[in-house]
Design a protein that fits this description.
CATH class: Alpha Beta
Strand order of the largest sheet: 2-1-3-4-5
Radius of gyration: 15 Å
Strand content: 15-25%
Helix content: 40-55%
Structural class: alpha/beta
Oligomer: single chain
Largest sheet: 5 strands, mixed
Number of helices: 6
Shape: globular
Distance between the termini: 27 Å
């Protein structure tokens, strides 16, 4: 996880400077995004919390999540990552929400996405940004780290843009 710390430290510095908070909903990164952010000393100043929402079941278990809304969005898409970012931000009362979803490998997911496919989204006041990454690798652990790094990079970009 140490390789993720420079990005996590940048996120932490930006959030602390702005006195803002983040909540994370991750899936195929398996908790690496939140672990990296929590590894930075003083994380309680900016990190509201996280959920490793590996399946839809987790979202359905949360209060006030409309099952009909979930039924309209396919997992491992930018739309799903955007839903995660918005929902976790709202539920945790954070300034920012980060969503991540994908297929770490070694095989693809049941929707036909190959291993190494992941989608990310950041939601904040007036900000809604999403993107997709394809590593082309079926190495599960390497993909998990690549997904976490990409999510942290995206978050840094959003924060540095002054959004």
């Amino acid at each position: 996880m140490r390789e993720l710390l420079p990005q996590a430290e940048r996120v932490a510095a930006l959030l602390k400077q702005r006195k803002q908070t983040i909540a994370i909903a991750e899936s195929s990164a398996g908790g690496l995004i939140s672990a990296a952010l929590l590894a930075v000393p003083g994380a309680s100043a900016y990190c509201r919390g996280a959920a490793v929402a590996y399946t839809r079941h987790v979202w359905l278990a949360m209060r006030d999540v409309d099952p009909a809304e979930l039924g309209k969005i396919r997992s491992a898409t930018e739309d799903w990552a955007s839903f995660q970012a918005r929902a976790i931000r709202e539920k945790f009362g954070a300034d920012w929400g980060l969503g991540e979803t994908g297929a770490a490998g070694p095989t693809g997911n049941r929707y036909g996405d190959p291993a190494g496919h992941a989608c990310f989204a950041v939601a904040g006041r007036g900000v809604a940004r999403a993107k997709t990454l394809s590593t082309g690798s079926n190495d599960r652990v390497a993909n998990m780290y690549a997904f976490a790094a990409e999510a942290l990079d995206m978050l840094v970009e959003c924060l540095e843009a002054g959004a």
